[in-house]
Predict the structure.
Amino acid sequence: MNEKLSNAQRAKVLIEALPYIQRYNDKIVVIKYGGNAMINDELKRAVMGDIILLSLIGVKVVLVHGGGPEISETLAKMGKKSRFIDGLRVTDEETAQVVQMVLAGKISKNLVSLIGNMGGRAIGLSGIDGHMIEARKISDELGFVGEITDIDAQPILDVLDKGYIPVISTVGCDREGNCYNINADTAASRIAGTLKAESFISMTDIAGILRDKDDPATLISVVNVSEAPQLMREGLISGGMIPKVECCIEAIRRGVKRVFIIDGRVPHSILIETLTDEGIGTMFV
């Protein structure tokens, strides 16, 4: 958009945002950050800018990030081939260490640094910190891939209370000290539910749920949780979208008020979804 807004149009945009700012003030919003928006530097800056702005107007933003492509890249440099079963990475002990290093080390610290450089305040947390994400092995076949048995939200609340944005990497642990690779969508959904968040926003590489997958104009803007099984049977929700939608439904069932799947490839999609009348993705109710 190159056209210049007049002062009157700028004022209209700000006034339109007012009820949303009031709705979200002092409320928790959990954002699952992944996909193309993590790889493209311009989009990454737009996402961090949105998060900082929301934080400055009094929204308690919790950022939960993935990092699958970077994990695969690091493993490839080590000569290890990535293998997946039903979308989950087969994780031996060495891979679990790499997952921890890439997510809780490189990606988390880079995001915290970027937020700081852009004028925000962030602190990186992993699911291991304070035993925040407790997990157990899903199956011997998947190795150190964890299913969540418990979430202790206190470390997140402590960071929010001090005015920082928690940046959470999704590794978990058990009582024996084993480290587990946790699916980021699942972790973000459970965290949102535990925090009874006002909203949970899942950033993806598609516009939302479409009646025709090749036509963004067929976006279904609102889906009732009870309609989702029928949409799956019709094939409108398929492949990699199924687990994402299941996570959204789980978040609603755990008490999250509003759940959105939005297109992370659109700059400032978070602000468009949270602070405008139009919105941009699919909302689950």
The mean pLDDT is 91. The chain has one domain: 21-284. The first strand starts at residue 28 and ends at 33.
